[in-house]
Amino acid sequence: MVELEVIEKLHIFKDFTADELEKFPDLCSLENYQVGESIFLEGDSAEHMWIVMDGNVELRFEMPDARRTTHENTLSSHNRDLPESQIFGWSCFTPPYKMKLSAYCTSRRCQVLKINARELNHLMEKDTSIGFKMMRYMVQVVGYRFKQMKDEVAKFMGINLMNSW
User: Fold this and answer.
1) Which secondary-structure segment (H or E) carries 68?
2) Own/partner pairs, 16-19, CB within 8 angstroms, 24+ separation
3) Which residues contact 40 (CB under 8 A, 6 or more apart)?
4) Per-residue pLDDT reduced to its tens digit, 79-125
5) Which of 22, 23, 34, 79 is 20 to 30 Å from the Cα of 68, by its Cα?
6) Phi and psi for 49 in degrees, rounded to 5?
């Protein structure tokens, strides 16, 4: 359980009423990680949605030859400074409910808010106002992630173009 004051400060909940916010503390817990620790791994069951409270988190793809993943495998970075960047783990909303990437703490310390996806999905089905507000915000998160991906592809294509000269 997390204090209501922690939840109230998060951008994702800015449009929620006081009554709606009171339904979230029991769904949430805070977890702390150290640099290099994995929060979850690619292929894990997507049982939680995550919000960066402090520090930096990178989402990376795992190498098939079992080499340790590095910064070079990063597809997106997340921190608390940019609201759309705070959220990760949205595979909990889409079948087959498996993590598509791995999440690693990349700062000295990370604190993340972990939200139980099964209970969150149940709450969103039961209270459609909460469901609408959550999904409206998640569309912004997905849009931000696509922009990050587009920027990475453009950078990669530019490097390849420069190398072919």
Assistant:
1) none
2) 16/130, 16/133
3) 48, 89, 99, 102, 103
4) 567 767 789 998 999 999 999 988 999 999 999 999 999 999 999 99
5) 79
6) -105, 145
Distances (CA, A) of 131 to 16, 56, 134: 11, 27, 5
CA atoms of 116 and 25, how far apart (whole Å) = 11
Identity of the residue numbered 3: E
CATH 2.60.120.10 for the 27-117+125-163 domain, yes or no: yes
Q: Could you tell me the CA-to-CA distances from 2 to 25, 59, 71, 111 in Å, in that order?
A: 5, 25, 31, 13
| Residue whose tokens read 């994702």 | 12
Residue bearing tokens 């916010």? 21
Helices (H), the chain: 4-8, 18-21, 83-86, 117-126, 128-163
Report d(CA 121, CA 154) in Å as an integer: 35
CA 138 to the chain's CA centroid: 10
Q: Are 95 and 60 in contact (CB under 8 A)?
A: no
**Encoded amino acid at 106, one letter:** T
Q: What is the DSSP letter of 98?
A: B
> pLDDT tens for residues 149-165?
787 777 766 666 666 65
